[in-house]
Amino acid sequence: MTSLPLLVQPRSPRTRRAAPPRHLADLTPKERRAVVTDLGEKPFRADQVARHYFGRLLDPADPADRAQMTDLPAAVRDRLAEALTPRLLTAASERTCDAGATRKTLWRLHDGALVESVVMAYPDRVTVCVSSQAGCGMGCPFCATGQLGLTRNLSTGEIVEQVVAAARATARGAVKGGPNRLSRVVFMGMGEPLANYDRVLSAVRVLTAPAPAGLGLAQRHITISTVGLVPAIRRLASEGLQVTLALSLHAPDDELRNELVPINTRWRVAEVLDAAFEYTRTTGRRLSIEYAMIREVNDQPWRADLLGRLLAGRLAHVNLIPLNPTPGSRWDASPKSVEREFVRRLRAAGVPTTVRDTRGREIDGACGQLAASGGG
Questions:
Q1: How far is it, in rounded angstroms, from Cα 358 to Cα 321?
Q2: Cα(27)–Cα(253) distance, rounded to whole angstroms?
Q3: Which end of the chain is more exposed for a tag (fewer CB within 10 A), N or C?
Q4: Of all residues in the chain, what percent are helix, strand and coil, respectively (each to 5)?
């Protein structure tokens, strides 16, 4: 990936950290079988463990769940579980709201780093929003994660485990108000997914592979968000995937976007949109434009008109996001009347527009809020 100028270089981790334990999600099926063979067991045992993990949604790191893996000899269960499914995430805090339909978890990783995921149930679907990095180096000033700085990239296993944990909680009835099966994944939690490109793409391939190789989700039900890393967007277009691309635009003009999304000083609005539209042409997938509505900052009628001109006639949809203010921030959400006028102008330009359902305000729902508070 093209290196960034010093002004917008992602903040480096403060200290070198030990790598996360190796997990079956980090390995190909062939590599999993090799691990089991090295332990002196038959290779098919690896597929059995993976089928319990991805298919039955058992947690082999939990002794109670491990006891249910009865097709594995009791004498080898512990050894196989420790080798293939070490504990990657420990819940430091869990909060629910919306009558149990929204569930946010603050996870502590093996090295003490904190990340968040949020499960949201709707009548027809259950979605999990996952983190791809601990912290974020993009420095967007209105985002709680952006103010944390970057701690480190997550491993493929740490990303996948967030999704599997959400699928497990959903299947066991811990998430109310929706089906009992997780169906959608959005990479909109902590971090810039395309700054952790290889591991995010590896996680997508695991999540969409059928069991026992993976979780068996549909590619079209996975969304990858980005602030606009142009070389990575172009690379994603060549991967042969059918995932949705979400572009966190937040301003249609370079002057304001330079302030709200500092990476814009490297790749301007026109260049970012050109790469995003290349993705839509290559994949046939509709582009999602994410736009946080910030009071008296980016919510002026003329900016709605400019955004409409940029997107008119394109395979794109605007998702307006009422800002979830962070404590002590000078940024606040736009009034509803301003929001409605913004929607009206975009739709008048022929641009499909919706306002995101606000979830989790009372449980520090914005990504990074819970981690910034330490989960307290």
A1: 8
A2: 43
A3: C
A4: 40, 20, 45
Chain CA centroid to CA 318, Å = 19
Going 368 to 372 to 375 to 376, the CA torsion angle's sign is negative
Q: Which pLDDT belongs to residue 1?
A: 28
Average the pLDDT over each of 14-18, 197-201, 277-281 and give the range with the smallest value. Answer: 14-18
Q: pTM to 2 decimals?
A: 0.91
| pLDDT greater than 90 at residue 369 | no
> Do 201 and 239 form a contact (C-beta atoms < 8 A)?
yes
CA dist 266 → 4, 262, 311, 340 (Å): 7, 8, 21, 32
Tokens standing for 53?
Answer: 């993990």
Active site residues: 116, 367
The CATH number of the domain covering residues in 88-372: 3.20.20.70
Q: pLDDT (tens digit, 9 = 90+) per residue, 100-117?
A: 999 999 999 999 999 999
Which positions ≥6 away from 30 have C-beta within 8 Å? none
- On whether the CB atoms of residues 92 and 202 are closer than 8 A, the answer is no
Both tokens assigned to 81: 């579980």
CA atoms in the 13 A half-sphere facing the CB of 40: 3
Q: Is 76 exposed, middle or buried (0-12, 13-18, 19+ CB in 10 A)?
A: middle
Location of each CATH 3.20.20.70 domain in the chain: 88-372
Residue 24's nearest CA partner among 42, 61, 49 is: 49
DSSP string, 280-326: HHHH-PPEEEEEEEBTTTT--HHHHHHHHHHHTTSSEEEEEEE--PP
Closest Cα to residue 35, out of 73, 98, 86, 75?
86
274 contact partners, CB below 8 Å, separation of at least 6: none
Start and end residues for every CATH 1.10.150.530 domain found in the chain: 24-84
With residue 231 as reference, give the H or E element that holds it: helix 230-237
Confidence of residue 328 (pLDDT cuts 50, 70, 90): low
User: Looking at residue 10, what is its pLDDT?
Assistant: 39
The fold of 24-84 is DNA polymerase; domain 1 (1.10.150)
Q: Which two tokens stand for residue 141?
A: 């000033």
- CB under 8 Å to 333, separation ≥6 — which residues? 293, 294, 295, 322, 323, 324, 325
